[in-house]
Amino acid sequence: MTGQQDRWAELTGGQAGEEYAQRFARLVRSGHDVHGEAAFCTTLLRPGGRVLDAGCGTGRIAIRLAELGYHCTGVDIDSSMLAVARRDAPAQEWLLGDLARLDALGLEPEFDLVLAAGNVIPLLAPGTESAVIRQLAALLKPGGLLLTGMGLDAAHLPLPEPPLTLTDFDQWCAQSGLILRQRYATWGGEPYRAGCGYAVSVHSRPVPAGRP
């Protein structure tokens, strides 16, 4: 543990699992497609690939990806969210852990894609962001992808103001050896332009020279 509460815990008190799940259930009943993130993942990785859903919450994305043929592991620091995930998909791997201390979970660097959706990065404990990016990057295979989605203004965040910029984020990724490949404004793939309130970013871990 970092010893410092993340912004998500400050907002919810760590008891948001059932309420969060019910909110998405209402969206499904009203006809909304809640699988945009999973659909985006399928454009980057073929079924059978290994995915780490970092900050998986109630498991909405990881469960959908498993249904589509991916091998998914979910990690979250909020036990109330994981309780919902474990109830809905007991056969999947759900780990309770701090993203800044993923090394403590003993995960191997075997993931084709690491996903941090749902404003995971902006809601981290202040000052841990670079450490989290470093931990996520370390779990990627050579050529593996880090896929993130984050709000960049108050309209796209559950916060009064954004705690970081894309420049900050890209710098942390570069320091962790990752290269920006693509950036979009939505999970539907709309082009990103300066000033957009949301960014979906695809960074990759380079393949060492001489490797196929």
UniProtKB/TrEMBL annotation:
Record key words, sorted: Methyltransferase, Transferase
One GO biological process term is: methylation
Record carries keyword Methyltransferase: yes
Give an example GO molecular function: methyltransferase activity
> Where does the record place the Methyltransferase domain?
51-144
Q: Name the CDD domains for this protein.
A: AdoMet_MTases
InterPro entries xrefs: Methyltransf_25, SAM-dependent_MTases_sf
- Pfam families reported in the protein's UniProt record: Methyltransf_25
| PANTHER family, per the entry | METHYLTRANSFERASE (PTHR43464:SF89)
Q: What is this protein called?
A: Class I SAM-dependent methyltransferase
